[in-house]
UniProtKB/TrEMBL annotation:
This is NADP-dependent oxidoreductase domain-containing protein. Pfam families: Aldo_ket_red (PF00248). It comes from Usitatibacter rugosus. InterPro entries: AKR2_Oxidoreductase, NAD(P)_OxRdtase_dom_sf, NADP_OxRdtase_dom. Residues 16-325 form the NADP-dependent oxidoreductase domain.
Amino acid sequence: MRYVPFGGTGIVVSALGFGCGPMGSRFGVRESRRALDAAFDDGITTFDTARSYGYGDAEGILGRFLEGKRDRVIVSTKFGIRASPSTPVKRFAKAVARQVFKVIPGARKLATPAVRSQMGAQFSSHGFSVAEMTSSVERSLAELRTDYIDVLFLHSCAPNVALDDELFAALDELVRKGKVRCIGVASSAAAIAEMLRVRPQQVRALQFLQNLSAQADARTIAALPGAAGSGRMAHQPFGGPEGVARLREALEPMRIDSRLSTPLREKLASADPRLLADLALNSVVRNTGVDVAVCAMYTVDHIRTNAGVVRESRFSDAEIGEVQAYFAGAMSDS
């Protein structure tokens, strides 16, 4: 695995991060623990979670995994979106849903508006008061079974949260006490821009969406004053099923596009099934200023593939740059 400085925070991260979003919801405890162990064994040391992930259960699953290895991993979590308390009925419903999604992978898209509304009701957002932040952090520390959080992100906050002096004074106090090493924001480009404008000395980490099909926000963020010294973490590096499909469809025309270098076109002609992962992940963590690409990986083969291509890519930086430019042009023409 490649390990890199997380901006100027003093934290060292693995270039591939493990996204804990599906733990406790799409994947149960046993499957999640198997994936966490496989990721750690393959050198992944960065684990990204949130108070709301897994309907509130993800941090607890991660916390049990961390026992005996906390000093060897980097943990980021978030506050601002709260999951409603778990109940026996909700736990049973989640277990049933997991089985349905295994049998019918597209079942999530078939959910009725009423079902989706009920799922959305499991969360409440805008929990950015000092009291709610303090409660969320204390709960995170307890669930994670640790006495400190490496990176604490404000989760999907609005730009005006940057103006809350009381909140940031309380966050600074957490850092002073050693409960949090670094404060960050995981939100829209607009919220990140406002945070860097108002709180450049306090907000040291940024998390945002980035993949080959969505490069604009990342370029905007990279150009912002203060961004250069911040640790940067990108989520959804594959762009979901739609992003993977778009990348797959683009391969054939790229293989014959004379504007691309011959060595790159020859590499794109490979039948290696790891090719897509190599392109997707390395296009996020190279030539971009992004330190960590965070994705959900819940099979051993998926983890090994992703870790392998981040550790050793077939593409040079110049070739990755060609791919990034190609997609940037394709997106602007569409």
